[in-house]
Amino acid sequence: MDYYSPIGKMLRKLPAETAHDFAIWSLKRGLVPGQKKFFNNALKSQVFGLEFDNPLGLAAGFDKNAEAIDCLSKQGFGFIEVGTVTPLPQFGNPKPRLFRLEQDQAIINRFGFNGKGGNLFAKNLAKRKNYTIVGANIGKNKDSLDAIHDYSILLEEVYESCDYITVNISSPNTVGLRDLQQKKALSDLMSEIEKKRIELANKFFKRKPLLYKIAPDLSESDKHDIVEVALLNNIDGLIVSNTTISRPDFLQNSHKDEKGGLSGKPLFELSTATLRDVYKISQGKIKLVGVGGIASPQDAYTKIKAGASLLQIYSALIYQGFGLVNLINKGLVELLEKDGFSNISQAVGTETGV
């Protein structure tokens, strides 16, 4: 039953952030119906040492405070990423800061890491039931002068209660954050965070996968530098990509010139090109999570063939609802079978020439 069509239409009559807050409120209380998870051996894979039932995850930004994990775990995802969280609570940027571009099937946001802080986030993580794999996406406070300190604090707070950690260095809505993608700053950050991970792995007797989320708006030299530094610092994976500050000429909605990061369908080509480039540069040596504009099984399959071992969605859910999760997974099985692949891992990077 497609319960989302009428509900989604009503939600989209509300201001975008109000609708988002209501969705989290409903999920937190278990008021959103779950759906029977689609299982197929062709979709199972081992990535970063973790066993995934399917490759499709929920991207960070939806459940910023890790409040709705249990209900989200019943929506068919192979994994869920919560956050971005900062050490201290912060309001973020002034409202309005979330805009729907319905004609373009897109979203622009300039939230600025709004959230309730690391302490509450970690407590929420610790209370979750183990329905699925959960990643914690960590960031820095807006006014912090020491990014490494912020990330280190959060790494320690979330380490025991999540399955992997993502270091967000690519949101366009925190001034100076994307500068951390520059080679020297990134090298210093990755080196110190890796030292912290080793310390925590020894403390808890378990090495947790560490990923970095990068922007789609990178020069060729930036991409090469990121791959080089990531390989030197034993990074488990890269999430490609965050939202874009660019604005394609074909955008139609009146909100198209709002400041912030653009996500959804218009991001697909750029994020996929970045994904493909990073896969080629790394020669497939770094596991990649493909995110940006996925709204159909074919979109998902294109990302996989461009080098993604895992996938994430968010913006398309606003327009299509959680039923999209099983729809994509079922469609992926059909596409894999059509091309003669018995498992998703066989299709990763097949169109890159690597």
Keywords, separated by commas or semicolons:
single chain, about 350 residues, alpha/beta, TIM Barrel, eight-stranded parallel barrel, three-stranded antiparallel beta sheet, 11 helices, globular
Short account of what is shown:
This protein has 354 residues and is α/β, with parallel strands linked by helices. The protein has helices at residues 4-11, 16-28, 69-72, 118-127, 147-158, 183-204, 220-232, 268-282, 297-305, 315-320, 323-338, and strands at residues 45-47, 50-52, 56-58, 79-85, 98-101, 106-109, 133-138, 164-168, 210-214, 237-240, 261-264, 287-291, 308-313. The protein is globular, with a radius of gyration of 19 Å.
What does this structure look like?
Helix 6 runs parallel beside helix 7 (220-232) and helix 9 (297-305) packs across helix 11 (323-338). The protein is globular. 50% of the residues are buried. The strands form three sheets. It has an eight-stranded parallel barrel, surrounded by four helices. It starts with a helix and ends in a 16-residue tail after the last helix. It has one domain (4-346): Aldolase class I (TIM Barrel). The protein has 354 residues and is an alpha/beta fold. The protein has eleven helices and 13 strands. The mean pLDDT is 94. Helices cover 36% and strands 17% of the residues.
